[in-house]
Amino acid sequence: MICAPALVREPGRFACAPEASGASIGVSPNPTSGATTVRLQLPSRQTDVRVSIFDARGREVTTLASDARESGAHVLAIDTSAWAAGVYIVRAEVGGVVASARFVVAQ
Fold first, then answer.
1. pLDDT of 73-87, one tens digit each?
2. Is the pLDDT of residue 13 over 70?
3. Spatial CA neighbour of 50 closest among 23, 31, 28, 29
4. pLDDT tens readout for residues 19-64
5. Contact 35, 79 (CB under 8 A)
6. For 41, how many CA atoms within 13 A lie in the half-sphere containing its CB?
7. What's the CA gap between 107 and 100, in Å, rounded?
8. Domains parsed from the chain with CATH numbers
9. Which of 11, 23, 47, 101 lies 20 to 30 Å from 70, alpha-carbon distance?
């Protein structure tokens, strides 16, 4: 199970979902203060993917991808230099199942 701040726009609540079968997600460097890379490994078939980033209160900060992707490794670059310091969640919805990872933005 993956538990993260509720992504149903209810600040302070947490939601849990099974980890996406065959999908994985990671962020590096972590912690970061500038250029950051989100690495997404998708299962062995093409699937719809939505990758979003949320702050610690569950508010969506940005959407990195919302489209169909082929299987394999995908790299998404983001610039966090203008973001407030704190904990963020990158959430990948892959074929209706969720995988997520936490990362820290430092000053």
1. 999 999 999 999 999
2. no
3. 23
4. 445 688 999 999 999 999 999 988 878 788 999 999 999 999 999 9
5. yes
6. 9
7. 23
8. 2-105 (2.60.40.1930)
9. 101
Token match 């407030």: residue? 84
Which residue, chain included where needed, has tokens 């999908």?
Answer: 23
Distance CA 61, CA 59 (A): 6
- The DSSP code sequence of 24-76 is EEEEESSSBSSEEEEEEEE-SS-EEEEEEEEETTS-EEEEEEEEEE-SEEEEE
The contacts of residue 70 (CB under 8 Å, 6+ apart) are: 42, 46
* Amino acid identity for residue 97 in this structure: V
